[in-house]
Structures are given as C-alpha cells and as structure tokens.
Amino acid sequence: MSSDPESADYSSTAMSDESDRDLTLVTLPKNRGCMPALYNAHCLCHCCYVCQFLLYLLIFPLWAKWLIVNPMPTEYWHQDYDPFPLLQNDFDSEIELRRQMHPMIEMSTIPHSASQCNYSCSAWRGFRTEEMNFRVDITLNDSSLAKSNAHTVFPVLFASADFQDWWVVADKRFASPTPFWTEHTAQAGKTFAYVTDSCTRPPEGNARGAEQYTGAYILACVTWSPQSLAQLGAAAEVTDKDIAQHCSSVGGVCGWSCESSIPPERLPGCNAHGVIEVTKTSFAGRKHSNANFQGEVSMKECMEQDASGKCQTKEGGFSTWSCHRCQYDPKQLEDASDIRRLGIIPGEGLPSGLLSPVASDIAAATGESAEGPTIYTSLPKFKVALSGTDNPSGFDILPSPSVLLFTSSVATSGLWRPLFKDDVKTNPPVPLDASGKPLEATTADDEEEEGETRAFEHHFSRHRMHLDQENRITMDSEWCFGKQGPLYLVACAVNGSIYNGHHGLFGGFEAGQKVAPPPFNDRCLDVTGRCGHACLPEQPGLQNCTIDGRIMQDKLIGEVEAERNETTPVWLFCYMLLLGFCIKVAVLCPGIFRGYHHCRRYDPQLTRDLRFINVCVPAAGEKKAVILRSLIGAIGCMPKECETRFHVTFADDCHMVELRDLFQLLANIVSAIPGARTAYSYEEMVRQFFQAWVEDTKKMDIGKLRVNSSEPLDADISDRLSGVATLRSLRKNNWSFMDDSNLGRLAEGVKQLQQALGTSNVTQFDLHRDTVLDWEPADPNLLALRLHYLARAMPTEDERTVKSQHVAPGIHYYKVPVDADNSEWLMLRTHSQEMVYGLQDKDTKLSHMVPIHTSRGKPGALNFAANYLFYYASKPENLLRVDLQDQMPCLFSICDPHHQFQPDFFHTTIPHFFDEYGSLDMDVGFTQCPQYFHELQDKLDYLDSNNAQFFRFHSMIQNYCGGVSAWGTNSTRMLQVEEDDVMWVSEKRRVRGPGGSSRTKQMVERRFFPENCKVEHMASSINQVLKGNRSSFINRRLSYGMASCGNEALATMQRSSEGSVVLWLQSFFALQGSFLWLTFIAFGCFFASLCLLVKNWSGNPVIVEMGIVDKATMATVTHPLVEAFKWFVTLFDSDYFRHKPHLMHDYVSMGLEFTMWIASLIVLLIVVFLITEALKVCRFCRLCSCVKVPDEMRHWGRLLIRMIQISHWIWFWLPFFWIGFNYWNVFARQSYHFSPLGMFVFIMIIQALNWGMVVSSSMRGTLQASMETNEVVSLSMDNLWRSTQSFYIAAPLVLYSIIKGIEDYMRYHFYGEDISFGTGDQRGKMSTWLVKYWSLLLVLGPVAAWIHYAISARRHIGALSSCFIVTLVGLDVLHPCAYLWVGQSKMTREQANKLSWSQALTTPAWWERVIYRVALSQTLSAVIKWLGPLCFVALPFIIFAL
C-alpha cells in the first residue's frame, strides 16, 4: 500500500507504450539541492519567524531595562521642586567638573554688622522682623562661556540656613546696571566709555552739514599721555603721522550716514560694516611704521537714556545712524556759569597741559560773523568704547584715557579735523526739536552742580573716558535672604536660554521658590558661594565653610546623579510589561519548532488499522431541525470505501419523543436508498444522496430553522432540510436513470420526514432507564454505516440533595457483581435504584454500587456513547475478525448539534492519525479543525463567535509542537481499550464516608472523557499531554456551524474561563499535575529572572550583587569592554557617551548582564535537552514506564501550552491595569518621563517584530495548507481586531468567572458535586450584563479624558499619549458595545419612515436603529479596525515629536 502520492509508482503506466500520446500522468524527478529547505516558502517563513522571535526575546527585556536605567530627560529633573531649567550642555562631564572646581565668580562677603543689612524686606504690622537682605556685588571672569554657547548670562542668588533647604533670593530683575553680564571676563569687561555731545561742530564756510558728513571717516583717537592730548586738542588739523604718533588706540566708522543706502566699502580702508579698518600699524587703509595701536575702539549710536542717565546704544552700522538738526549761536559767553558748564573751574583755568583756543580759531572754525545763529544737520549722540587694553605703566599718564574725535573724507585724505566744537568762549550748538525750536537747556544751578561735582571727582578735561566694568553686577534684592544668623549664599550664573526655551514651561523665578540642593553644576554655568552668620558680629564656624567665609567649591559642584524613572508606577508598568512579555513568549514559543509529518492523502486501506469510526452528536434540548442538519452531516462524511465500521451516534439526554422519531425516520431514509440493480453500489448511493443533502443544508442558519420561534419552516427550507429538494435534484441529474420503482420508498421517507418537521412534540419518555436504538443495513457487508440512538437514564433527582458524583442519598445507582462481564452492562443498568437516607446500601464482597451517571452534562453523554460503542463492537456478531482489527483503537468525533460535518471531513482527518509511511501513529491523541459560521463574516462577527484568533493564529502556532487544544466540537479523539478491560473502574471518593470515616474507593463506569469540569475539551487536552500524546490541527473548513445569538458567545467565553479556573485548581493540586507544576515553576523562574535583571541597575551585574563573582573580577572583565565601547563611541563621534563615562559604564554593564542572561538561558535549554534525552533513554529501557515523561523538546512545548491555556485567568488584571494606568496618566500628574528618541526606537522595533511574527506565522500556516489542500484559511485584520476587543471586554467577565469557578471547585472538592453541567443561563445573562456596562464605560471614558485634558492636563507631558490610548480602547470596544445595546433593534426601515421627527426623537427604538446604523456600519468598521494599528505605528512618532 502507498498512501503518499509523491511516492506512488506510475512508471509502468507511463512507460508501457512509448507510442501512447494520451498519457497525462507522469512522475517528475525531485530536485534535490544542497539546501532544499530554503527553496520552500513555508520553510523561509519558519526561518523568519525564528529570527524575529529571538530578536523579540532580546529586545523587549532590554526595553524594560532601558525604561529604568536610562536617565530622564534633564528638563524633568528635580520635579519635587519649583521649575528651574537645567543646562543643555554636558554639565556632568569630567571637563566641566574640572573647570568649575576653580570658581570664576567673585562675590562680596556676607556683612557682619546689623547696620549693613536691610530689614525692610519683611514687616509684620509695621514692625521689622529678623528677615533681612543686603547688597551683593558679583564679578564674572570666565572666558570659556562662549564655547558653551552661553552668550547671555544672568545672575541668580540662592540662600540656605542649613545647606539642605535652598531657595531663590534674587534674580535678574534686581541686577544693575544691566540684568546680565555684558562681558564675561575681566579683560573684556574692563571697558572705557565716552559719550559725545548731541551736536557736532558747525559746518565750515557755506558748506551744508548734509554735504559735510556724507562719505566721511569718523575717527576716535585714544591717548593716555597729557602731552599728546594737549597737542592734538590744540590743533585745528592733524595728519596721519600725528595720529600714529600720539594715539595709543584708534577706531571709528566710515561711509555715508543719515540712513544712507550707499555701500560703505566704496571708501578706501572701510569695510562692509562701515567700520574703519585698523591694525597695530595701520588705519583707514594706510600703514604707519611708528604706530602701535592697542585694544579695540568701537562707536555706537545712542538711542535714549536709561533711568540713570546713561546712553543706551543700538546695533547697526554708520549708514543706519539717524541725523538730526542743530543750531549754533556764535555769541560769546560772559556769564561765569557758562564757563563752569564747560567744565572750567573758576579761578583755576584749564587743566594742566591744555591750550586755550583763541578768537582766530573760533572765526576760522565757524566762518561766521556774529550776525546770528546757524542751523545745520548733525550726527547723533554716540558712544565711544575702548576695550581689550590694560593701563600703561609709567608716571606721566592720565588717570583714565582721553579721546578726541576727528573727521576726514576722501578729498582730504591724510588730514583730520576735530568733529566737535571745543570753544569755551561761545555757546555750544544745541539740538532742535521737530518744530525747529531749541530743546530746553539745563539751568544754571544744575550746570553749576554738575560742574562742581565733575571738578570734584576729576581734574582734567571733558575728553576723559569713564571706566565701565561690564563683568560686574550689583544685586540689590527686594526679597529676604532669611533670618539673621547662619547663612549660605550662592551666586549662580545661568544661561539666558532658560527664559525663552523649554516650550514655555519656565516662566521665571519666584520669590523664595525651593531649589534642589547641591551639586549646582547641572543648573549653573559658574557658581560660587559665601557663608557666615549674617548681620551678627560673632562668627562661629559653619559646616562646609572655609575660614575666609567661602563655601567649599567641592560642596557646590560634583558629579550629578542622573534621575531615573524609579517610581512605583514605572516599576509596576515594567513588571506588567515583563509579565505580558513572558506570556507572549510562552504563546509564541511553540512556533519555533518544526511540525510533525503525517500521511498526505486518504487511502481506504488506512481504515483497516481502526476498530471503528464514530461521529457522536450530543443533544441537550436543541430543536429537531438543528439535530437533523447535524445528523445529515454526520452520515454524509462517511469515508469512501471504508473498511471498518462507521457509526453515527445520537446521544439524547432529554429523552425527547420527537427526536427519537426523527432518528427512526432518518434510519428509514437510509434504508430506502436504492442499492441493488443500479449503476452504483449501495454505499456510493448513500454517499451521493447525503453529500447532496449536506450541500443543500450546510448554509442554513438559526433564523431559517426557526429555532427561537414557533413559526413553521419556509417551504424552501422545509424541502431542503427534509431531503425533498435533494431527491428532486438527484432525479434530474445523477439519478435520472431511476424511476419511481427504485425511488418510491425514498420519496415516501423524505415526505414523512418533511411532515415530522412541521409538527412539534416536547414529550419526554422513560427518563429513568436507558433507551438504545440501533440501525444497520439489511446486508451488513454492503455498507459500513451504523446508526445508534442513545438516551441514557436521567432519573429525576431529589432537589434537596447534592448532585454528587458518588453514591449517596438521593443518587441513583445499580449493583455490579464482582464477576460481572462487559456484556451485562446494559442489563445491570436496568436495575438502577435510588439510595434513600436511612436505608443506605453498602458495597459487599460480592457486588459494588455504581452511580447511574457521574456526569449529568456533555462529558457523561460522550462517555456513555463511547462505552456503548465498545460494548456494541464487542458483541460476537459485530466482531470484524480481520487480523487484529478488533484490538485496534477507534476514532471518536464530536459534532455539536449546531455544526455539520462536510463530506470530506474524514478524508482529511484520518490521514493525520497516520505517519508519512501510512502506519498508525499512536502518539496522536486527537485532531481539531476550526469552527466556521458562514453567516458570520469576520467583519460582522462583533463578539468573535468564530473564535478566529484561537483557530487561525494560536492553533497554527501550537500545531508545530503538536499542542493544539481540543474544542467542544469538530475534534476527533483516538480511543482504545485493551482486550481485558472491563466496563467498571475503581476510583477514590473525594468525600469521606458517614461519620467522617476515611475516603474509600468506589466503582464507576469507564471514562474516556473527563467529567471533572465543564470544559471537557481542555481537560482532555491536558490528559493527552500528560500521557505523552500530541494533537494535530487541520486548518480547513470541514464543519459548517450555525451561530447562536451574539450573547451566546459571551456565555461560552464565561464558561470557558470558569472551567479554566476549576481545571487549574484540579490539575495543579492533583498527583498527575507534577509536570504542570514544573512547567509553571519554570515560567515563574523565567519571569523572576527578568524582574531581577531589570530591577538591578546599580551598575553591578546580578551575579556580583548575589556574591557569585566578586566586584574586582567583574571589573577585570568589564574594563576592556568599556574601553572597546569608548573606541566605538569615538569611531562614531558620539559626544553623548564621551562626556558621560558613568552612563557608558551602565550601558556596558547592562549589555553584559543581558549577554549572560541569554547565555544562561541557552545553557539551561541545553541542560533540559540533555535531561529530556536521558529520560527518553530511560523510557525506552522501561526504567520509568510508570510515569509518562517528556521525551522530546516539543513535549515541553505542549506542557507550556497547556499551562498557559488553563492559567490565563490569573492574568485577568492586565487589562484593568493597562486601562487604569492610562487613565491615571490623564487625571494625575505624571511623575516619570522617558527619552523620546529611545522610546521611538524601541517601540518601532517591537511593533515591527510583533507584526512580523504574526505575518510570518500566518503565511507559514496558509502556505502549508495551500500546498496540502489547496485551501487557505488565513488570519485577517478583522480577526486581530476582534482579539483586541476580547482582551478588553472580557476583563470583568473573567473576574466574575474566577468567583464562580472557585465556588464550583469548592463544591466539587468538598461535597463531591457534579459540576460538569450547567444549571441555567443565569451566569450567561450576568456575563452579558457585565460586558454591556463595562464596554459602555470604556466608550464614554475617553470623552471625560479629553475634557479633562483640554481643561487642565495640556501641560502634563504624557497625558496626550494616554488620551490617545484610552480613545483607541474606546473605539475598539465600540462595536461590541453597540451590538450588545442596540444589536437586537427590531424597527424596520418602513416603520422608521412613517414616524415624524418629533415622534422619532422621542422613540427609543428609532434611536437604537440610528445608533445601530452608525456604530455598526461597514465604513466605520473599516476605519476603526485600521485606526488602532496605524495609531500604534504613529504613536512613536507622536512621542518623538512631543
């Protein structure tokens, strides 16, 4: 026999006659390359999945570790204090620390006398307090600030009384003369300034001022020599040689003034900025060997005067200066006050060395007679500044430099004339206002005071320049520094960017705002401090204070400890992430294995290795139309040319008369199908009829079968369901050659069935005893089909007693003699009786009491059916007597009444129980194919009734290690009994006997399906794994189901969760659960290792913290790694790590930890592999045959699957935590912040890996299915969306299931109660109610979140992303919420059109219809299902942008 088409030998057929040209079937040679797996798209997807899984295993924990280890962005440091922006440069680098160890700020000392302190800063009811302040002078001398892009530096003062609590006592608003240091060094800050008069000298002759001062040079000559000043000041004209000889510094402006647009570079020696070009030996483009100019001279126009009367300059070249009009009156002065106004002290004359101008000079200068005033255009007042020079050494020098201003033009090149009138005998020129009137001059008294003051302070001419120390600021604060006594006062230089950056989060300092304690180098460019007992003469010593009253510099600066997100919310968030990661790894881990091989095609000879095949349809009160449809499929899937018995078992626990009659009518139809005297065999005729019947009925739904109503079936549905339409179609096609003589009985049979479908009879019969009806063909050898109607005894029980699984008062039982044979089973059951309290019977040495049923639910019906089939097959007349076929296992398929098997069900299923060589594989415990509801398309399956996420994703992944879970329907189990097995087995009672006696053993009927919980399929799956068996998933639509109402999906979900709770408690606390415990402990250790790995961020690896390796040894290992990392950083020119060596060490330690963690996992897996292989050898040698131990790594994968499957309820709190965490972020101020770039990179990588694994796994499964069956059942976007919906909406349902599951387990364990059946739909209704209101809360919650965000949370970083997340959650559950609330809307379109607007707005049904049409529309569905993935892709970009 050859069951593999690839191995079939067609050579004799293909090559028998070389001249035969009609041959169509040939054998192609196989291409055997060196790496054939890579040529297979299925294998390529497998490789991609494994690579992505390994990357995911590394990246995700690394992300969780990064969330803790990586410092917060510096703008969020010191959140417990008032806002104080941190520096953006590398304040914690070694270079910065060394620089700031030598303070570049000098500040005045703290006064020791109360008279030097100001107590008016604070008062209470008019009385002064101990609060005080005082004036502080601060000098800055730091030339490196410009390298740090700190061009504008402001002062801030901190104060403290104990060096722990600090507060701001002054800032830029109390600084003078400017709010910032105009210069940063003593050299640059030493500036000499001179402000000119408002009017230049009158024009010469008939020339107009506008012509005189266009295209000119304005030169400032600075000298320290009295002789040079006297000689230059007396001259009416000087030459370049004089300038070079007498001026120590020169500089000026050039070009065309009065807001001219002529380029200044047209003048020789003038640059594009309108500045005279000057070097040490040249000016204005002309070189002089005897010149030695020092420093820099600049000129700037005066805009206005500040409160102190000083000139405020503006930036801009000479061409932007604004000229104005002046008036000159040549009238000579006679009043002495005029002389004093010019700075001449009465009785002393001119300062020493200065020459007095003569009248001829005046006339020559003005060119005017004393006939009247002259109006002309003048340059504005401007300021001359000298910087970059030191005082000259020597004795014959002036106290400060003097400046003389000259002008020249191209026409007078080399000659320079004074710019201002220096006449003491005439009135100086005065500026005119806009109306042409002279501005009001100062009074004589003012002039006298001014002159006297000037003469008192200085003793030389009006040409002197004043010293402006621009690197010095005086702080005269109005805020109190604190109480007199111990005081630490710190001067901090802050960058000006803090006032205009940081997204507007910093609005300036406030009086007394709290400041984080030292070190201050994270906030201050430079810092220094003074200490002492303020305003007190006694000066005892202070901590951290030197003898001369300075704060120790190493106490003010130091290595800044980075602030990390080590808050409780972040730890909880990380633990939640790690737990979800562990669960996901456990779910995805089976996908890394290669799948098992099985036979690829059906061959009738395969059935020889099976004792029988059975399809069981268990009924629990369903309508007969539903039952009939399922039975049609059960018969129609009979394998072709089946060489073993094929049984269809109908288990009716309700003992319904109409169902029994239905079974008999169906059996009559099978008998009426013609077999003899036709072109087809009897088997083929039966197959044809039922296959056509299945095709007519497979797409019927609940509504068409009137399940929820008493209305009769439609004529078309009645014809199709009864077989009338099927027979009519066959008569026209395949059976057209047959007449009424052949098909008369069949036509009568389907007509009787149609009539029966039109009636209803809910009468029950013989509940107290078993009813068994068998049908077999007249000639058993013509047809393998056997039909059985089984109605096990379901006697009425006393409502007062516990529905126990052992013999107790109120429980029916029968007695079994100790020497009873299996053939007596049904006969013994007929003698059942109820145990009556007070008349209890007991086991004897001759007989045992056996409960009539230990399960009143579906598992009990399945066990009764299985026992009956083995009982039936053991009858002498039913023995096969072919080789050892009567001792072979059988296949037992379960078909829920709402499902219908398709004709190719067993043609696909049977090969999965055989290996690739066609031999029966005893390790295959069961197969499972997915549920499929044709009327529920993915986009309309609002509550995931198809369970597509499980069948189309998880089952495909689990199948690779043979760990797919069985389901309540569409599963086929392999059952086997030994030849000497008896119908009854002994088990230990779960409850004690009367009087508290010890637990005894009792006899029960043999079980093939667990009866300890409602989720028999899960319990069976666990038992199969513990036995060492595996399963196989068939990814084909081999069964068509009819979906109940949407609420039924929630009830099913609740029952599944509730059963998981019970099953977990039963499995983990049972003797056979040792390997489950081992798997659970391994899972817990994996999670604990991740938590320990993430929790340890001290810089030392875990093995150092645990004492396994000493710190010195680890340092020896990490040092070369750190150096290599430094080299890598240098290679990529990364300043981030170069200036943060401690962070570099943290990252190296973190990488080393993860490397060791991965290595330890690999070592552990190798150890597990070796142990598994050793156990395999022991099992082969029968050294541990009593316990089924794992013999391959895929067996451990199956144990992991089962552990996760029944433990999922433990993680019920995850959706609650995730939703609550995001709402907490919205409504509470966030105390943690992550680097946007890091979060962006990690989230993008993790999202890519997530989707990559989903796509590669789905492609792998669909490609394999397409190659084998040419049928693709793929995972769609709707399926992923529904799984997300289920995650959120099922949270309260699982919590409710936990409560009820614990209640059931307590009843099961302490009272021995039967919990394998439901007691009504109360729990289903409660589940629906919980999900309705919970989903409504999730939909309305985002509205409140956005309102709160708009009102008060906009400034909270992180609130926006949480608003997006809760909105996505609300949109995800919108469909289930709308379906549960308005999905049953009954108002039709015609009814809605008849309503007026007023009626419609006040009609609830109309609103339900509107909400239904809007919320459940296909357009909205398409938008929402893609919105979530798109938002999660876009969210990293949003985080990075914000």
Task: Describe the protein.
The protein has 1442 residues and is of the alpha+beta class. It is built from 41 helices and 43 strands. The protein has an eight-stranded mixed beta sheet, with helices on both faces. Strands 27-7-6-26-28 form a five-stranded antiparallel beta sheet, with no helix packed on it. Strands 16-15-19-9-23 form a five-stranded antiparallel beta sheet. α2 crosses α25, α14 packs antiparallel against α18 (740-757) and α24 (1046-1068) packs across α30. The longest helix is centred in the C-terminal third of the chain and has 40 residues, at 1141-1180. The protein is elongated and about 150 Å long.
Stretches where pLDDT is under 50 for at least 5 consecutive residues are 1-38, 207-212, 336-370, 442-459
The gyration radius over C-alpha positions equals 50 Å
Distance between the termini: 70 Å
**Total helix count?**
41
Structural class: alpha+beta
Q: Can you tag this structure with a few keywords?
A:
alpha+beta; 8-stranded mixed beta sheet; 5-stranded antiparallel beta sheet; 1442 residues; 41 helices; elongated; 39% helix; single chain
Summarize the structure.
The protein is of the alpha+beta class.
Strand-helix topology:
Layout lengths: L10 H5 L25 H29 L24 H7 L4 E3 L15 E2 L2 E2 L2 E2 L3 E5 L12 E8 L5 E5 L4 E2 L9 H4 E6 L13 H4 L1 E10 L2 H9 L3 E2 H7 L2 E8 L25 E2 L2 E2 L8 E10 L5 E3 L10 E5 L7 H6 L17 H8 L7 E5 L3 E6 L14 E8 L5 E4 L11 E2 L12 H14 L8 E4 L2 E4 L6 E2 L1 E11 L18 E2 L10 E9 L18 H4 L11 H21 L23 E8 L4 H13 L8 E8 L4 H16 L9 H16 L17 H8 L1 H9 L7 H18 L13 E5 L9 E7 L20 E6 L7 H5 L3 E2 L12 E5 L6 H16 L16 E5 L4 E3 L3 H5 L14 E5 L19 H12 L11 E5 L8 E5 L12 E5 L10 H11 L3 E4 L5 E3 L4 H23 L5 H22 L6 H4 L5 H21 L3 H4 L2 H40 L12 H15 L5 H15 L8 H34 L7 H13 L1 H21 L10 H32 L5 H14 L1 H9 ...
Parallel strand pairs: 29-30, 29-36, 30-32, 38-42
Antiparallel strand pairs: 1-5, 2-3, 4-25, 5-24, 6-7, 6-26, 7-27, 8-24, 9-19, 9-23, 10-12, 10-20, 11-21, 13-14, 15-16, 15-19, 17-18, 17-22, 20-21, 26-28, 31-32, 33-34, 33-35, 36-39, 37-43, 38-39, 40-41
Helix pairs in contact: 2-12, 2-25, 2-29, 2-32, 12-25, 12-31, 13-15, 14-18, 15-17, 16-18, 22-32, 23-30, 24-30, 24-34, 24-35, 25-30, 27-29, 31-36, 32-41, 35-36, 35-37, 36-41, 37-40
